[in-house]
Every structure is written in structure tokens, then in C-alpha cells.
Amino acid sequence: MSKRVSVAVLAASAVAVIGVAAPQASAAPVPQPQSVTAETRAAAAQAAGAPDTLATLSRFFAREGKVAMDAARPRIEGEAIPVSYLSPDFVAGKAGASVARLEFLASKAVSSDGQQAVLWTARTGAGWQVVNIATGDDEFRYAQMGAAKLPGGTVFREPQIDAWYVARGGRVLPLDEDAERAVGAGGTSLAAYRSRVTRAYGDKLPGSAYAEGGMAGGYSAAADDAGAPVAAGAVAGGLALGALGVVAVRRARRGRTVV
């Protein structure tokens, strides 16, 4: 599977979503809502459809010359959906912790020539903002797959290995090849999954020596195999690039990451 191209559009004063402030940011992390409400969906939709966002999308879709910037005419399709990632509290074995936690809301953008991208919208110190744009429709595709495979389950991503799952009750089922390699085609029990992620990431949680070394919050500072900087997690790790600036980076599928 090809890597996704991702653009950081986090305002310089904003903070990381995953619970670790970006190195350049001075403010404390802004907690994301625990659940999605009509109010949060409306706020995400407003940010996604803002004129500045659409202008950034036009540049994003035109970045490889596939369509002229003034002809991209990006539009937002459908409602924003919640996107959850593996929870640090679950990894740490905290009693009652859910396997996943809400990280951002995703909105689907489509250009006039059919290109698709996903806008990641999160609550920052300046309010709800689009903090990243990524090619493709992974977030929506896996949400649909999870609903079909395990209705009522929680779809979530384990960003450390770029794996997608759906969990319900005591079962965790894979939604892609990375997840199958981790838990098998038939999935695993929630308890077994917790044991695996605790072994893998338990010593890399925020507050650990690993985190204090500057590695917490997402991918490492190393470049990917194309020599481009690696984006960190959802928006953590230093994506303070100026409001709605377009700087293309690639997310390594095997970057060393932490929760």
C-alpha cells in the first residue's frame, strides 16, 4: 500500500491532539471531547468548509499538477466522523479504560477531478481548526468496513504500526493487513490485545524516559525512506507550520512511534 501524503495545517499557536504538546508550542495540550455531539460536528463542518480551508485544499489537490489550482473546486462531502486511536490509558492498564479514544473529526474533501482527501479537525487553543490534510479516504473506508464487520463496534487505529481494527465486547478484529499481522486474520481477545500493546508500548507512554527523550506523541524525528520529514501521530511532534500553510510531508508506515 502506498504512503499517504499529508499536509500539516496547524496554526503556530495550536497544540497537539494526542496529548503531547508540539515542541514549538508553548501552550498546554487541549483535550479533545470524549464524545461527538451535534455541536462538535457543526464546529468541524464550519472549519472544514471555511474559505481558507478550501483555498488550501485547492493547492493540495494541485500539488502534483493533476489539476489546476483554480480548477480544483474542492467540496466537502457528507458529515464529519469521529476518528479514534489506541488509548494510552488502555496501554497503561488503567481500570475501565476503553481500547480507543477520540483524536479528531474527519471530513471528506473531493476535487473536481475526483481526487479525495481527508481533513483532520480538532479543538485547539484557538478553537476548532483543520490541523492536517491527508490523501485518500482511509478514515471513512475503515469506518465503513468496521461497521460491516462488527456492527456497533469501535473502529480505531494503532498508529504505531498503521493498523486499523474494530472492537466490541471482548473481541478485537483486524481491518487491514497490518492489523492481521498483529492479531491474526481471526482477531484476538481484548485481554490478549491489551497484553500485546502493553508489551510493545508500555515503556513509551507520556512521562516515561522514552517520552522525556523527545519521542512521545507520534513518529520519530527521523526522515522516511524518501528523505522527507515524518509527521508525528495525528498532529503531534512539531507541526506548527503557520496557519493553513501547505508543506507536504509523508507519513512513514513503519516509523517508530509511541502512544
If you had to describe this structure to a student in words, what would you say it looks like?
With 259 residues, the chain is of the alpha+beta class. The protein has one domain. It contains seven helices and ten strands. The longest helix is centred in the middle third of the chain and has 12 residues. The two termini are 23 Å apart.
Oligomeric description of these chains: single chain
- Give the overall silhouette: globular
Number of strands: 10
Largest sheet: 10 strands, mixed
Bin the helical content.
Answer: 10-25%
| First-to-last CA distance | 23 Å
| Low-confidence parts | 10-27, 216-259
In short:
The chain is α+β, with helices and mostly antiparallel strands and 259 residues long. The chain has helices spanning 38-48, 51-61, 88-91, 138-149, 177-183, 190-201, 209-215; strands at residues 5-8, 75-86, 100-110, 116-124, 127-135, 154-158, 163-168, 171-174, 188-189, 248-250. It contains seven helices and ten strands.
